[in-house]
């Protein structure tokens, strides 16, 4: 029987990336003489990759960009963000201990983010976390990003696993919809980035800290998936 798999979202789920995302976004806004987006505005912008975040950030600042301008600013954003990707971004409390527990119990762990794969790898490398994961899937790894099922099913496949023994853990509607599309259960964290509380989005379980992940998985997967 293949090992059970936990597929994790990255921004707002494993790592609190908001400060560095916001700093790079605000650098680009500032270069256009626009005021900064406050920290509590970020949850409306993140979840569908950096390009969408930038577009929404400029919409929020009341500036309309044509596609050519957007591309120039997107390059500027990527350059700044990749140079400053782990300045203040840190794992959420208890994350590493929780992941250790699953790994020791024989689970395989995967990342499935809508960040560009290169940025996701750079972030995880700088935080010393790359070796925890059997595979790292970004928004550009497959033809379609989340909320399509493709990157989740691709992650499971690259782990040598089976969707019937896999669970998704995420922080946004994008993750919940992608898990539904892939027909796997989904646990939502309530400390991530979402304009709508995850309790209103219909995940199978909601957790408020990484300490609650193990019991939630046992409870949810019961006799099927949780047994390594
Ligand atoms: O960077 C984003 O917009 C989304 O990233 P996530 O899929 O890891 O939440
Ligand atoms: Mg997220």
Automatic annotation (TrEMBL):
<dbReference type="InterPro" id="IPR041492">
    <property type="entry name" value="HAD_2"/>
</dbReference>
<dbReference type="InterPro" id="IPR006439">
    <property type="entry name" value="HAD-SF_hydro_IA"/>
</dbReference>
<comment type="similarity">
    <text>Belongs to the HAD-like hydrolase superfamily. CbbY/CbbZ/Gph/YieH family.</text>
</comment>
<dbReference type="Pfam" id="PF13419">
    <property type="entry name" value="HAD_2"/>
</dbReference>
<dbReference type="GO" id="GO:0046872">
    <property type="term" value="F:metal ion binding"/>
</dbReference>
<dbReference type="InterPro" id="IPR037512">
    <property type="entry name" value="PGPase_prok"/>
</dbReference>
<dbReference type="InterPro" id="IPR050155">
    <property type="entry name" value="HAD-like_hydrolase_sf"/>
</dbReference>
<keyword id="KW-0479">Metal-binding</keyword>
<dbReference type="GO" id="GO:0008967">
    <property type="term" value="F:phosphoglycolate phosphatase activity"/>
</dbReference>
<dbReference type="GO" id="GO:0046295">
    <property type="term" value="P:glycolate biosynthetic process"/>
</dbReference>
<dbReference type="GO" id="GO:0006281">
    <property type="term" value="P:DNA repair"/>
</dbReference>
<protein>
    <recommendedName>
        <fullName>Phosphoglycolate phosphatase</fullName>
        <ecNumber>3.1.3.18</ecNumber>
    </recommendedName>
</protein>
<dbReference type="InterPro" id="IPR036412">
    <property type="entry name" value="HAD-like_sf"/>
</dbReference>
<dbReference type="InterPro" id="IPR023198">
    <property type="entry name" value="PGP-like_dom2"/>
</dbReference>
<dbReference type="InterPro" id="IPR023214">
    <property type="entry name" value="HAD_sf"/>
</dbReference>
<feature type="binding site">
    <location>
        <position position="9"/>
    </location>
    <ligand>
        <name>Mg(2+)</name>
    </ligand>
</feature>
<keyword id="KW-0378">Hydrolase</keyword>
<feature type="active site" description="Nucleophile">
    <location>
        <position position="9"/>
    </location>
</feature>
<keyword id="KW-0119">Carbohydrate metabolism</keyword>
<feature type="binding site">
    <location>
        <position position="11"/>
    </location>
    <ligand>
        <name>Mg(2+)</name>
    </ligand>
</feature>
<comment type="pathway">
    <text>Organic acid metabolism; glycolate biosynthesis; glycolate from 2-phosphoglycolate: step 1/1.</text>
</comment>
<keyword id="KW-0460">Magnesium</keyword>
<comment type="function">
    <text>Specifically catalyzes the dephosphorylation of 2-phosphoglycolate. Is involved in the dissimilation of the intracellular 2-phosphoglycolate formed during the DNA repair of 3'-phosphoglycolate ends, a major class of DNA lesions induced by oxidative stress.</text>
</comment>
<dbReference type="GO" id="GO:0005975">
    <property type="term" value="P:carbohydrate metabolic process"/>
</dbReference>
<feature type="binding site">
    <location>
        <position position="171"/>
    </location>
    <ligand>
        <name>Mg(2+)</name>
    </ligand>
</feature>
<dbReference type="GO" id="GO:0005829">
    <property type="term" value="C:cytosol"/>
</dbReference>
